[in-house]
Structure prediction request, 335 residues.
Amino acid sequence: MNKISTEIIGTGLYVPGEAISNEELIELTGVEFDTQKFEKNLGYKSRHIAKYRGINETTADFCEKASLDAIKNSGIDVCDIGLVIVGTDTPEYISPATAVVLQGRIQKGQKWTTSFDVNAGCASFGVAYDNAVRILATDNTIKYALVVGVYNMPAFIHDDSRFTVPIFSDGAGAIIIKNNTDTTYIGSKLLTDGTQFDYIGIYKGGANHQVTKDDIENKKYGLESLQPLPGDRNVKLWPEIIKHLTDKYEEKIEDVDHFIFTQINASVINQVMEIIGHPLSKTTIVTDKYGYTGSGCIPMAFHHAVIEGRVKKGDKVIFVASGAGLSVASNFFIY
Prediction:
């Protein structure tokens, strides 16, 4: 397999407002939930949600601020970015793409920049990252790519829902990728099972079903859980994905320095690390700080891994992200 010469040279993160603890969330929403269970099993201690802080920000705002943070940390000129991809299933609009809105905000006008969105559920960032490096590999004139993973699911949930309110939160992470470097993107392994499209999702507002007055009155809009997700799916799936990924590129699992997983459940990440035979020091978990930020959680956790020195230049890193659909993306690269 041909490895692609790209390097992540900057990361950024943004979350809106002050952190909201489990106890404060109950006060703000009136939704009761078992705070001890959420802290012990899922690892959730706090999160950031714009609407509960009275902050008038949405997906594009989160993207812009995370992107500017990554651009600052990379030390590049924003106008040297030739590719902008936003990975999300909570876009600013159905159309135009959030990436187009973001490009206009950061580059301030018409540029020779490719901009588009990727929607693969909570695996959107992983798919977007893979698309970005493959575009860079075919176009040497693009100096830098900006890839953002962002989540604004609280905008699509009902404030009285015991299922959704304690879990979903706002946030964005961004990376700057440099083209034509000595560092390599080793590759990816992607998986899809579209027969599971009707498990959980946002089913109203698209071409199939516009939101009606009846939907609003009966709260049949926004995020809907139509079928229960298998509780052990990621525990079984993630080790298999990692094995297929490392086998594909003739690499050894024991040689991987760090793993970043979808941050839906801290106990699942702990179990997976045990299964693959690596210590917890080789993963980064941020559920305690941010709750669940969907498409944003992989780059947000990676940002922490970098700034905290858990991932160093030259380390081999694997991302594994699962999303509704079912969509799964894994990325293998040298940082």
In short: Residues 59-74 form the longest helix (16 residues). The mean pLDDT is 95.
